């Protein structure tokens, strides 16, 4: 066996390995209807959302980063392919879609946190779509929806930024939890019409004609992605085994 002269360096290497092999694989997003009669045309490489009626609402959702905290988000992106020049600069249709998350405290409380394109501070992040990390979101106003009881949130949910919510977990409620419901849960909550399947992170299209109407051609998007720095279970095992080896080496030295 070749002696290891510097076990501390091995520890550094294992930490680097852990970081590089964390669950940063891009999430899969699924198109779904939320409310009304939005039209969804999914070609496999891009998705068109046609919002023709007041209240129509649809989304691309993913559960692949459920279990991460908001503060662990490393990447959120989507490409917008339709012609936004037909919309008023800075308006919802020109800077959509908007982004929201289901968050929980792990004690049975859920809410949706969002920042919409109508927020001027968020509009500056738009560039033919979005490419974001948590640092981009951290100082932006966090709008909270889908729960009338905000007592479990900092400052009762008032005047918060995403930074104030960094420790809360991204997690969609289960179908049974959504069917049971709670005060404040509305028809616009990001859950699939009829099935009540919900997704932890959502790119949302539609809601009101005044803010988010697209019409035909609709919103055309591609390459929806999300990632968070959660080490994979197998990676944790490698890391912990390495630490144990280092401790044994130190005891022998």
TrEMBL record:
This is PEP-CTERM sorting domain-containing protein.
